[in-house]
Write a structure and sequence with these properties.
The protein has helices at residues 17-37, 43-50, 54-60, 64-89, 92-117, 123-148, 158-168, 177-191. The protein is built from eight helices and no strands. It is elongated, with a radius of gyration of 20 Å. It folds into two domains: 17-62, Arc Repressor Mutant, subunit A; 77-191, Tetracycline Repressor, domain 2. The protein is 71% helix and 0% strand. The chain starts with 16 loop residues before the first helix and ends in a 5-residue tail after the last helix.
Length: 196
């Protein structure tokens, strides 16, 4: 009997709403557990606290590495999705500032889960490198919107602003770095405003 194949006109089925909710709940709980315990966290605890069956966990994430990677990827996707949301609801410069502050929160959260990410093949560096384009695209879009609106100097390069922001994160080993980073965001923006 020939195999049944989808015709080009048949839409790809979207996951059911409950399957999407289960996946998001697993990722939320896994982030908290991996942050608290590390990569050796019990998957049974994640299952129990998520309120799903173990089959549901393994259907979405067949290995521990797949789960850790998905947790990190989900956080990056949330950060990127905030860009268009801020752009739709805030003036250009406020949207850019709000996203930069959210980026600081993202990095602070990432630092807590890095020990678990380091256990994945290729380590945390591979995961972080894989997210760069998404972060760069989101930031560049917001920065360019502020430039086009006249809130930032026209000769500012969005990549230079992003490099300066990322440079702030080299102080994450110091206690209280988040407050310093937030102040530096305002300094960076103020120094990028038009002079006249």
């Amino acid at each position: 009997m020939p195999k049944k194949t989808l015709s080009p006109t048949q839409p790809v089925r979207r996951p059911r709403a409950d399957a999407t909710r289960n996946r998001e709940r697993i990722l939320e709980v896994a982030k908290e557990v991996f942050t608290r315990v590390g990569a050796t966290a019990s998957l049974d605890e994640i299952v129990r606290r998520s309120g799903v069956g173990s089959g549901t966990l393994y259907r979405h994430f067949p290995t521990r590495d797949a789960l850790i990677e998905a947790v990190y990827r989900s956080e990056v996707e949330k950060l990127a999705a905030a860009g268009p949301r801020f752009a739709a609801s805030l003036p250009p410069l406020e949207a850019l500032r709000a996203w930069m502050l959210l980026f600081i929160d993202h990095v602070a959260g990432k630092m807590l889960i890095v020990p678990a990410m380091d256990t994945v093949a290729g380590g945390s560096s591979r995961l972080i490198l894989g997210s760069r384009d998404l972060i760069r695209t989101t930031f560049s879009s917001l920065a360019q919107r502020a430039i086009d609106h006249g809130d930032l100097r026209y000769d500012i390069d969005a990549n230079d602003l992003l490099r300066a922001l990322v440079g702030i994160f080299h102080t994450t080993y110091e206690p209280g770095w988040e407050q310093t980073a937030r102040r530096l965001v305002d300094i960076l923006i103020a120094g990028s405003r038009p002079t006249n």
